[in-house]
Design a protein that fits this description.
This protein folds into three domains: 83 residues, 2-Layer Sandwich (Alpha-Beta Plaits); 85 residues, GMP Synthetase, Chain A, domain 3, CATH 3.30.300.110; 195 residues, Vaccinia Virus protein VP39 (Rossmann fold), CATH 3.40.50.150. The protein is built from 15 helices and 21 strands. It has a seven-stranded mixed β-sheet, with helices on both faces. A four-stranded antiparallel β-sheet has the order 4-5-3-6. Helix 11 links the parallel strand 14 and strand 15.
Length: 473
């Protein structure tokens, strides 16, 4: 390998070492040939049990830069789309225009695929001819494989590959390729984001901040429908569940529309809490409800639990302390025509539990008959603090306990950095309730929020001795 100018790193690769130890020498070169289009500096052609190498030229190196913009863009902070242009040498096959579509179907895995790139161009030497651009990584050394040659033979096309100078522009590169070329080498590239209607929401790291406006513009350019990009600049406020944000690119309109589980919502993303990653969890809880059930949503936000529950013909009491969330909750109730099925409140969560929740349970539970199947659910989705609110349920009601079936079921959310998150959440809930939940609760992992930080939901029926305070004799 050293004789042919290739790095000894190849000898250290496990998959090559393993293969070489069990394979004959010619077969090893066949294996190397498979990777010749993907390994820098290696060009191997195997034919009739013979092999030879070709030195790497400037044109050959252009093949390997097919997915990289011009190197001069490194360190750019103000987007200059023209700077991304570069010319690469690619293989093409000359064909008559009448059979272009047939050829494209037959060679669909070999034709070059890049964003915004024409796969077929005019042949400057033949007005009736076309040039079909092939992927140089799949046509090493501009030599067609047997399967490609067979396809051309069946279509009566001469199996000759020509070289073509292809100009790649900003439009032909993916967002991740652009950002990887711009940011310092070796540093993490951000191309993922949360989408909230027309808004892309980023959480940039410190080393990415100098490039934040460029990153924002690239995301707008590469994602149709995104017209505004924001970056979170502070942690979520535990009181109103919103956070400070900076508009990185695009319009400053943060009032948007979203659709979740076939229900439409409108909101001002700068003033209320909305997380598209919770869609599955919203649907999971609503799926537990039956028509006629009662839902108390203590931290309702703009209604992702309350509104679908109301559409399911449940009786809903929804509350949120944030006045903006409360207003958007009312707006979305009207938008989805459930405003007459939801009683909305703008209160502190404790006051909501001690007021409307206590009043409704005190009224309904004594009337509950054995044959009735109405269930009561309390959703507490404020992961940073909700477990602390569980203590409010202690002796919330006065009197003799109702039947076990009528005891409300609580779905309480929390964050945990513990090595055993489920145990941690359960123990904290038990501390707030003043009783053991061992064997009487279930925990559900909602999502990974950050490294070593999980969001969980603990569900349990409130024990009668916790919920009821028996009157003195």
């Amino acid at each position: 390998l050293w004789r042919f100018g290739y790095s000894a790193r190849l000898l250290k690769a496990n998959h090559f070492r393993t293969a070489a130890s069990n394979t004959s020498f010619p077969a090893v070169w066949m294996l190397l040939a498979r990777y010749s289009g993907r390994l820098p500096g290696l060009f191997v052609v195997v034919k009739r049990n013979r092999f030879f190498t070709m030195p790497e030229t400037g044109e050959d190196k252009a093949h390997l830069d097919l997915y990289s913009p011009h190197p001069e863009v490194r360190g750019m902070t103000l987007l200059n789309r023209e700077a991304f242009k570069r010319t690469v040498v690619v293989p093409v096959v000359k064909v008559k225009k009448e059979i272009v579509n047939t050829l494209l179907k037959s060679l669909k895995h070999t034709v070059l695929q890049r964003p915004g790139l024409k796969r077929v161009v005019d042949d400057p030497e033949d007005e009736d001819g076309r040039l079909v651009i092939l992927d140089p990584h799949k046509i090493p050394e501009f030599s067609l494989g047997e399967s490609e040659q067979e396809v051309l033979k069946q279509l009566n096309v001469h199996p000759e590959v020509s070289k073509y100078n292809l100009e790649l522009t900003y439009e032909n590169f993916k967002s991740e390729e652009i950002l990887r070329a711009v940011l310092p080498e070796g540093q993490e590239v951000t191309s993922g984001f949360s989408r909230v209607g027309h808004i892309a929401h980023l959480n940039l790291r410190d080393h990415q901040l100098p490039y934040r406006h460029l990153i924002g513009q690239v995301i707008i350019d590469k994602n149709p429908g995104i017209t505004c990009v924001v970056n979170k600049t502070s942690i979520i406020d535990s009181t109103y569940r919103n956070f400070q944000m900076e508009v990185l690119a695009g319009e400053s309109n943060l009032v948007t529309k979203v659709k979740e589980n076939n229900i439409a919502y409108e909101l001002d993303f700068s003033k209320v809490y909305w997380n598209p990653r919770l869609s599955t969890e919203h649907g999971r809880i609503v799926e537990l409800l039956k028509p006629g059930d009662v839902l108390f949503d203590v931290f309702a936000g703009i209604g992702p639990f309350a509104i679908p529950a109301a559409k399911k013909k449940c009786h809903v009491f929804a509350n949120d302390l944030n006045p903006e969330s409360y207003n958007w909750l009312l707006h979305n109730c009207k938008l989805n025509k459930v405003d007459n099925k939801i009683k909305a409140f703008n209160m502190d969560g404790r006051d909501f539990l001690l007021g409307p929740v206590r009043e409704e349970l005190s009224k309904e539970l004594p009337l509950l008959k054995e044959e009735q199947k109405t269930s009561f659910h309390i959703v507490m989705n404020l992961p940073a603090l909700a477990i602390e609110f569980l203590g409010v349920l202690r002796h919330l009601l006065v009197g003799e306990p109702c039947g076990a079936a009528g005891l409300p079921t609580v779905h309480c959310y929390g964050f945990s950095k513990h090595e055993d998150p489920a145990k941690d959440i359960r123990e904290r809930a038990e501390a707030s309730l003043g009783t053991s939940l061992d064997g009487r609760c279930s925990t559900y992992l909602v999502r990974n929020v950050a490294p070593n930080k999980e969001m969980l939901c603990i569900s349990f029926q409130v024990p009668a001795d916790v919920l009821y305070k028996r009157p003195c004799p």
